[in-house]
Amino acid sequence: MRVGTLEGIACCVTTNRRDDIRERAIIIINERNFTEKRAGDFLSRQVKAVINMKTSHTGEKVTSGVERLVNNGIPVFDVSQPTNIEQLKSNHKIRIVSKQLYVRQIGKWENVASVKAYDIEMVDQLNELAEKKANESYHKRMVNEIDKMKSQVERVAAFFADENVRHDQGYRPIWIVERYSKLNEDLAILKRFMKRQNPYIVAINDSYEDLIKRGLKPDVLFGTESQMDQKMIQDVLEKQRKLCFTKGVSRNKECDQMINLGSDLISAIAYGLKRTKGAVFYLGEVEEEERAQYVLVEAWNKNRVFHLQAAAAMFRSRLEEDPLHWMMTRHSMLGADGWI
Fold first, then answer.
1. Order of strands, edge to edge, in the sheet holding 200-204?
2. Within the chain, which residue ranges are assigned CATH 3.40.50?
3. Of the residues 95, 186, 229, 336, which has the fewest C-beta atoms closer than 10 A?
4. In CATH, what class is 158-333?
């Protein structure tokens, strides 16, 4: 064997199982940007080298897989110009010399591909490039988010600038209800409280049906027309309740108005705040993607937006943990919360 030549038995690995890696073999993989954990699997099996059909380090993101192997003296190669690569199979003898990959076939060495080797300097340069790209991407994303937030603030500010309909419901509290996993359970707990308050109920999409089943009468069906059942829309119109769509161009002439400040929830809260001088109560779950908008609207209208899940959870825990004690102390809530 020539000086500077790497030679060994090939082992083609197509799974993530460490047991499939043959000890002291030259490993053939097809994995882009393989991880440090994957490199650890190769080291544990004492492999001679790793040949990758894809790019082991693209420079698109920081990865320590190649670095770990090279630092431990394990050569890493990427196949750059394959010719007869289909001949490369497990248990074949292979050799790498002068950036060329050879396979032993019928007593002779056949060139099947050119390869590119990694060294520490190259890995450091690729990681620096990846960090630069990550920083540029983060900066661009932050600028976009800030621009979106500015636009959101401007739209909310413009929406609340018009006081023309703020007096419409006086101080009657508005309850905004959105379907979630514990909605029916929480409605059962809060139903009497809701009736005592006589709230103006805004039902978002399918929560309309849940409210009707509980004997509660929504004043407005609010949300995206494509997510609403046509029978539900018809029921709203027949009972002369309001219908408000948030997205798209409605084909329904009975639609009260259209407002879109992002998600159905944010639009509904903005709608509620504009229709009353009193409080807006929300019963539902704030999704991760709309949390920033929710916090913004909540901060914009301090002491006017209240999330009711916490209240429902408090009553639910009392009922579940110690119902007798809850009934004995119920007199402490007379009148104040509307239970009696």
1. 257-258, 242-245, 220-223, 200-204, 174-178, 280-283, 305-307
2. 158-333
3. 336
4. alpha beta
Token representation of residue 157: 């500010």
| Both tokens assigned to 310 | 């916490």
Task: Provide the whole-model pTM.
Answer: 0.46
- Residue whose token pair is 């998600």: 263
What pLDDT sits at residue 204? 87
Half-sphere exposure of 146 (CA within 13 A, CB side): 6
Give residue for tokens 């119902």.
323
Fold of domain 6-126: Aconitase; domain 4 (3.20.19)
Q: Which of 251, 252, 249 shows the shortest CA–CA distance to 260?
A: 249
What secondary structure does DSSP assign to 198-233, as a single string?
Answer: --EEEEETTHHHHHHHTT---SEEEE-GGGS-HHHH
Residues 6+ apart with CB under 8 A from 183: 177, 207, 210, 283, 284
Indicate the SS3 state at residue 264: helix
Residue pLDDT, tens place only, 208-249: 888 888 888 888 888 777 777 778 888 877 777 777 776 655
Q: Where in the chain is the domain with CATH 3.20.19.10?
A: 6-126
Render pLDDT for 58-90 as a digit per residue (tens, 0 to 9). Answer: 988 888 999 999 999 999 999 987 766 677 888
Distance CA 188, CA 87 (A): 69
Nearest by Cα to 73 from 45, 43, 52: 43
